[in-house]
Amino acid sequence: MSFQRHVYHALHTPPSSPVGTGSARLVNMLLIVLIIANVVAMMLETVPALYQQWHVELAMFEVVSVAIFSIEYLLRIWVAPLIPHPKNPDEPRWERRIDYLLSPMALIDLLAILPFYLGSLVNIDLRVLRLLRVVRMIKLGRYSRSMQTIFTVIRKEARTLLAATSMLLILMVIAATIIFYLEHHAQPDVFTSIPASLWWALVTLTTVGYGDVVPVTALGKVFGGFITLLGVGLYALPAGILSSSFTAHMQQRRARFQDTVKTIIADGAISEHDAHHLERVRELLDLDEEEAELIIRLLQHHHRNHDDSQSDTSME
């Protein structure tokens, strides 16, 4: 195996993968620890007493972290041509690298190191740089199967979520417009304009109700109550869409595992090799051990009953 392929497996194999090598799991776990340590260090920098005492050590840790993340970023670009491309396997290597550079995770990797270089080259507000450093936490999504599942669900339901969000934004603008004309004369210093009224519409539609901006007229209160009741249902739409899609996604995984179990049972009893294969499939599909065991037992029971019924039929 070439050195480039070794690097590819070390960087692109999740630590929980059953096919991962020891080096891959070690590299991934070290990166996970480094990401968590960076987030903790970023938060500690905002504590004046701690920053005054440890600012030199925190600065050195930032330099080392950025160096490691930069090397990781460059290595991922280098091994990008080895990433399987089912749609176009003959795509040139440079095009595959460009495709990877434009991928969401590559952009997150870039944003994770960008604040350091921007602060060194450009005079920019340090608060903005600290805000960008939070992006490093998103890098953990690469190593978590649960987060990858959520990202997959969001990507699949992007159009539906966009439609629901568009409806909510339209309703928010309508609510802000109406409340402005109902309350402007009574509270000219609060509902100063329609854009300023958008805050009230957002807080009311989400049923948060901070109470910093409230209607005082009778019509305003009636309209506010109506918008609150409307928001209870409409703002639950995105959550319902994601919940439904997540359930369907998990059902597909269970169905794939069931198909694998049925194929193995049809060939006879489950051998040690088959059990090992099922365990690998279970981990790849991110199924719970008890759930997978229950599926296996139910299918085995169904298979035995089916064989017994066929045996009784043949005897008759």
From TrEMBL:
It comes from the Bacteria. It is found in: Membrane. Gene3D superfamilies: 1.10.287.70, Voltage-gated potassium channels. Chain C. Pfam families: Ion_trans. InterPro entries: Ion_trans_dom (IPR005821), TerB-like (IPR029024), VG_K_chnl (IPR028325), Volt_channel_dom_sf (IPR027359). Coiled coil: none annotated. Keywords: Ion channel, Ion transport, Membrane, Potassium, Potassium channel, Potassium transport, Transmembrane, Transmembrane helix, Transport, Voltage-gated channel. This is Potassium voltage gated channel, Shab-related subfamily, member 2. The lineage of its organism: Bacteria, Pseudomonadati, Pseudomonadota, Gammaproteobacteria, Alteromonadales.
